[in-house]
Write a structure and sequence with these properties.
- This protein is 42% helix and 42% strand.
- The chain is of the alpha+beta class.
- It has a single domain (6-150), classed as Nuclear Transport Factor 2, Chain: A (Roll).
- Strands 1, 2, 3, 4, 5, 6 and 7 form a seven-stranded mixed β-sheet that branches.
- It is globular and about 45 Å long.
- The termini are far apart.
Length: 153
């Protein structure tokens, strides 16, 4: 570009800069999604049911223990025991795999949960899949699926 006019150089730089934001946006978006999932886990561990529920969409479905619940059912049934479980155990999440497609994202991870809960010593392999939707309030969880099994198996 030696000898090129300033207008040509500015045009070339502008074109290059326009190409950068989508990549940065995707990285930032994936990080925001992962942070939302982590905020949900921290709310459970802190016993903050309001914060946990705020991160769920009104039509979210929670799948665990072989069944499914709406947000209202989760609030009334499994949320208190999920909080107690999170407070009694140590979660060692694996590296999450985050995928984003427009206003929908999903986070999959496999990790370990261990500790004592309801008088039982637990050492579990744990799998988690969360589907998130971009809302006006940021990323919110639309579906949760948890499964686990004993590490001894």
């Amino acid at each position: 570009m030696l000898g090129s006019s300033p207008l040509v150089i500015v045009s070339a730089l502008s074109a290059a800069l326009v190409a950068i934001p989508p990549l940065v946006w995707r990285q930032d978006t994936a990080a925001e999604v992962a942070v939302t999932v982590e905020r949900f886990h921290r709310a459970l561990q802190a016993g903050d049911s309001s914060a946990a529920l705020e991160l769920l969409t009104p039509d979210a479905v929670i799948l665990e223990g072989g069944g499914g619940e709406t947000v209202a059912e989760y609030r009334a049934h499994h949320l208190p025991s999920d909080i107690a479980f999170a407070q009694a155990t140590t979660r060692e999440p694996g590296t999450p795999s985050v995928s984003v497609r427009g206003d929908v994202a999903w986070v999959a991870s496999v990790g370990r949960v261990h500790g004592e809960y309801r008088g039982r010593t637990l050492d579990l392999n744990s799998a988690e899949l969360m589907v998130l939707t971009r809302t006006e309030s940021g990323w919110r969880i639309s579906a949760v699926h948890w499964s686990s099994r004993s590490r001894a198996q």
